[in-house]
Amino acid sequence: MRLKKRLQYSTEAKWNHETGGAAHLDGFTQPFDTPHEYDGNETAPCPDQLFTASLAGCIINTFNYYRRMLEAETRDLTVNASTDIELNDTNGYRVTGINIDIQVWSDRENQELNQKCAERATEYCHLTKSIEPAIPVATKITLHVE
User: How is the chain split into domains, by residue range?
Assistant: First the structure.
């Protein structure tokens, strides 16, 4: 598979005239809202949750790219991601840390390949690598061999 040198994605977000809105992304619609604790309706995930989901999704998609390339058989894959957000007196809220826990289930025969896929997902997820210089990203890989 030949990789493109440049990618560009765009989103148009529209306010719903309440406490959220919807992002329109190349044929998909993703609603978002404000949590109750900030006087929102909480009818959809908040942008912070969507940001965290995009990081987990990038790790999974990158893992799958290498899984297909290396022809690894994987029994299951789960990525848990969390963001630490702190209120700063000067600048408001800031993301101060990101934790990513990659759980891979494999048979013994594919153990090394699955470990390599997880390591490459950590190394090549472009979203985490792009923000890592500004926000500490801690990644943990656990390989479950069955």
Answer: 11-45, 47-145
Q: Do residues 117 and 59 make contact, with C-beta atoms less than 8 angstroms apart? A: no
3 secondary structure, DSSP code = P
Residue where the block lists tokens 């950590």: 122
Q: Which band of pLDDT confidence, cut at 50, 70 and 90, is reported for residue 2?
A: confident
Q: How confident is the model at residue 3 (pLDDT cuts 50, 70, 90)?
A: confident
**pLDDT digit string (tens) for 10-39?**
999 999 999 999 999 999 999 999 999 999
User: Which residue intervals of the chain are DSSP H helices?
Assistant: 47-70, 111-124, 126-131
Take residue 33 and report the two structure tokens written for it.
């809202």
* CATH code of the region 47-145: 3.30.300.20
**The pair of three-digit structure tokens given for residue 143, joined into one six-digit string:** 């390989």
**Residues 146, 105 contacting (CB under 8 angstroms):** yes
DSSP tag of 126: H
The pair of three-digit structure tokens given for residue 7, joined into one six-digit string: 């990618």
List the one residue out of 86, 145, 135 whose CA is nearest residue 114.
145
Helix (H/G/I), strand (E/B), else coil: 146: coil
DSSP lists the bridge partners of residue 102 as 79, 141
